[in-house]
Amino acid sequence: MTPSDPEQPEQSVPSRPASHLAEPVAAPSAARDALVGGRTPLLLGAVAVSLLFGFWGLWRVFAPAPDSPQGQLESSERETRGQRRQIEQLEQRVATLSRSDQISRDANRDLQSTLAERDEEIAGLRADVAFYERLVGSTAQRRGLAVHSLKLQPQNDTAWHFTGTLTQNLNRGAVSTGQLTLAIEGTRGGKLEKLTWPLLRQQPNAPGMTYSFKYFQQVEGDIFLPPGFTPVRVAVRLAPRSGAPIEQSFTWADATRDVAPATAAP
Predict the structure, then answer these.
(1) End-of-domain residue from the set 91, 120, 140
(2) How far apart are CA 236 and CA 178, in angstroms?
(3) Count: domains in the chain
(4) pLDDT number for residue 22
(5) Alpha-carbon distance 190 to 228, whole Å?
(6) Does residue 266 lie within any of the structural domains?
(7) 63 and 92, same domain (yes or no)
(8) Which end of the chain, C or N, has fewer beta carbons within 10 A?
(9) Nearest Cα to 196, choosing from 217, 226, 166?
C-alpha cells in the first residue's frame, strides 16, 4: 500500500446464526451415545462368558477327579445304591411269586380234598344204590327180618357208638316192629367173659333199642366196655313184636373194620 492510495475500509466477516454454532457441539455427543449403545451387549456377553469360565474353573478345582479316591468312593456309593434298589426289587418280586405259589398250593390242596370228598360221596351213593337194588329191586331176593350190617366207632377209652342196619323185603308193605339188643363176648384177665345188654348199657333191666320200618332202618346207640376187656365177637338180637327172636353174630374185627388199628380194641 502506498501513501497515495486511499485507505480502504476493512471487510467485515459475515456472522453465522447461533444455530450453526451449536451443531459442531451436538455431533460428538450423539456419536458417543451410539458407540456406547453398540458396545453394551458386547460387554454383557463378555461378562457372562467370564462368569461361565469362572464357574467352570471352580468346578474343575473343587469337583473330585474320576480317578481320585473321593471320586471312586462316590461312584462306588452310587453303584451300591443302584444295586440295593435292584436287590429290593428282586426281593419284592420273589416275595410276590412265593405268595402266589403258596396260594396256588393251598388252592390245589383244597381242590384235591374236595375231589376226594366227592369221590367218597359217589362211592357211598353207589353202595346205597346197590343196597336198594338188592333190597327192593325187581330181581331182589326175598328175605325176612335180618341185620344187614353192624358198625362200631370209639367215643373214648370205654364208650363205643354202634349203628345196626336192619332190613326185610319178604312182606312188602308190612311194618317190622321190635327191639334190638347187643351182647359182646371176649376175654378179661385170661378168662372168657360175656357182657350182656344191661352190662353194656350200665343200666339194670335196660330196655332194648326200638325199631319200626317197612324195608330198612338204621338203629344207633352207645355201649360201654369195662377196663381190661378184649372183645372178640358181637351178637345182635332182634326181638320182633310177633314171631321168634333173631340173632346174628359179627366178629369184632368186621364190626370195627373202618376204625384205626390203634382204637379197634380198648
Answers:
(1) 140
(2) 13
(3) 2
(4) 45
(5) 10
(6) no
(7) yes
(8) N
(9) 226
Which pLDDT value is given to residue 151? 95
| Cell numbers at 102, concatenated | 403258596
> If the chain, 266 residues long, is cut into consecutive pieces of 10 residues, what is the mean pLDDT of each piece?
47 48 50 59 75 70 59 76 88 90 90 88 77 62 84 92 89 85 94 95 93 90 94 95 91 81 37
Domain range for 118 is: 55-140
Tell whether 220 and 160 lie within a shared domain. Answer: yes
Question: Final residue of a domain: which of 99, 120, 140?
Answer: 140
Residue whose entry in the numeric block shows the C-alpha cell 357182657: 195
SS (H, E, C) the chain: CCCCCCCCCCCCCCCCCHHHHHHHHHHHHHHHHHHHHHHHHHHHHHHHHHHHHHHHHHHHHHCCCCCCHHHHHHHHHHHHHHHHHHHHHHHHHHHHHHHHHHHHHHHHHHHHHHHHHHHHHHHHHHHHHHHHHHHHCCCCCCCCCEEEEEEEEECCCCEEEEEEEEECCCCCCCCEEEEEEEEEEEEECCEEEEECHHHHHCCCCCCCEEEEECCEEEEEEEEECCCCCEEEEEEEEEEECCCCCEEEEEEHHHHCCCCCHHHCCC
Whether residues 175 and 253 share a domain: the answer is yes
Measured CA angle at 219 (ends 216, 222), to 5 deg: 165
